[in-house]
Amino acid sequence: MKQKPLFTNIESKHLDSLAIRDLGFHEETLMGMAALSVFHANEDLWKTAESIWILCGTGGNGGDGYALAHTLYQEGYKVKCFSTAPNKSEAGKFYESLVSKTLGSTGNLDEFYKEWEEAEEDSVLLVDALLGTGFQGELSEELKELIETINESDVFFYRLSLDTASGWNPYILGKEEKTNVFVYADSIEELGTRKWENVGFIYEKDSIIPRYYESIGFPIKTHLNEVTFSNRYYLEPDPESAIQSLKRKNKDHKYSAGSAIFYGGETGMEGAILLSEEAFSRLGGGISKIFSPSSQISSYVLKEDLSKMSKTSSFSDLTSDPFFTKTKTIVVGPGLTQYPQDLEGWTLPEGKKLILDAGAIPSFGTKLPKGNQILLTPHVGELNRMTGKTHGSIQSAYDTLIEFCPQNKVYVLLKSFVSLLVCPDGPSYIWESPNPKLATMGTGDLLSGILARYLSLELSIPESVQLALSFLDHSKQLEEPYPSAHQILKSLVELV
């Protein structure tokens, strides 16, 4: 699997200590490397600015800002540096002193406001180096006022934050009693590590703000062997493998090409289970059968394709069907409005994999089936219903699922603008590739069928999730601005 490690604030601090204490890095060196990385990564951006202002805090993030100011000045850019107070770290003091010598001075906040009042509209590129990822306290009134000025002013045509947007705290999103005041960064430069707390950073509707990772020589690989690493990863898109995996081999027969059972589609909602099965079969699945509580299911299925199998059935009757013993992949839920009672406490036979979606996502207190290869695919509302908790961020959902998944021995794929896969045995994976094309009815049913297709190839659940999401990502290329689920499926079928 293509994946990159994600580090929490605490883990990033451990890395910092590891680099300095055990490997002998000087903190000034790390700050200098961070500044150079940010400078070179944004050379085209600097050229667009009449003036660059850097706001520096008192910690390591402020030190990075001073180091960047020094580099920009030496490279010929018009740069001004303002600080909330003198820097507290030795390395930060070094660069603060260096900037005072090279730029002539650094301004305080009173001077910042004075210059801001005189500046022209869209004339300043602002670099936010106020607060690092380690800041978790309450903002002072002074900082709140400063951040609100930054966000509301038309002087700043671009706001770039170092490491994180100052004040950003995903753990209080959705909690009405608290207000999260943070810099509305246009982009974030993550320094040394990819930051878990930045995942899902958003302030504009339907738009994740870009974050760029800059390597500065941190001992990431060394740290992965430490017990302090929390086992979180980015899933990287793998579009080519997603396509190649679906192609049938010459020696395949109908079962080795992939077999699956689909259960769902109550009366009036048969289309959901039909779409899931269609995705499976049209993407190369060898054999499948639809079971449904609807008495009309066979007429719908045979109308579309006389070669397909279907049966009106309860879930418990499904398990006694001869086809059940022959297939290893089962999808339950599309087109159901309530959780099948037969699923409560049911034991998934060894060697089979089960996907629970839509109506098969249980409510809080309902017993889940038992097994070691069960994947639930809720959206946020279904997750809230399933756990009895409200979640305003990916981080808060993770905190719930990291307990829920091991306790229930299930995998959970949370479907949102950022997708989160939490496994029962430790690792968790983030998919951060928003796709507005999928914001349409039926794409959840489509995903269930695609997941079933990859699982039928004897791939693990994490591998199947990565490939399914990578495959669906191809739909971004559709010219149709608001494609239907069937249009999306048709375009995907053409790829294989």
From TrEMBL:
Its cofactor is K(+). Its EC number is 4.2.1.136, 5.1.99.6. It holds the Pfam family Carb_kinase. In the N-terminal section; belongs to the NnrE/AIBP family. In the C-terminal section; belongs to the NnrD/CARKD family. GO terms for molecular function: ADP-dependent NAD(P)H-hydrate dehydratase activity; ATP binding; metal ion binding; NAD(P)HX epimerase activity. It comes from the Bacteria. It catalyses: (6R)-NADPHX = (6S)-NADPHX; (6S)-NADHX + ADP = AMP + phosphate + NADH + H(+); (6S)-NADPHX + ADP = AMP + phosphate + NADPH + H(+); (6R)-NADHX = (6S)-NADHX. One of its GO terms (biological process) is metabolite repair. The keyword NAD applies. Keywords: ATP-binding, Isomerase, Lyase, Metal-binding, Multifunctional enzyme, NAD, NADP, Nucleotide-binding, Potassium. It comes from Leptospira bandrabouensis. Residues 237-496 form the YjeF C-terminal domain. Binds 1 potassium ion per subunit. Residues 12-215 form the YjeF N-terminal domain. NCBIfam families: yjeF_nterm (TIGR00197). Bifunctional enzyme that catalyzes the epimerization of the S- and R-forms of NAD(P)HX and the dehydration of the S-form of NAD(P)HX at the expense of ADP, which is converted to AMP. This allows the repair of both epimers of NAD(P)HX, a damaged form of NAD(P)H that is a result of enzymatic or heat-dependent hydration. Gene3D superfamilies: 3.40.1190.20, YjeF N-terminal domain. This is Bifunctional NAD(P)H-hydrate repair enzyme.
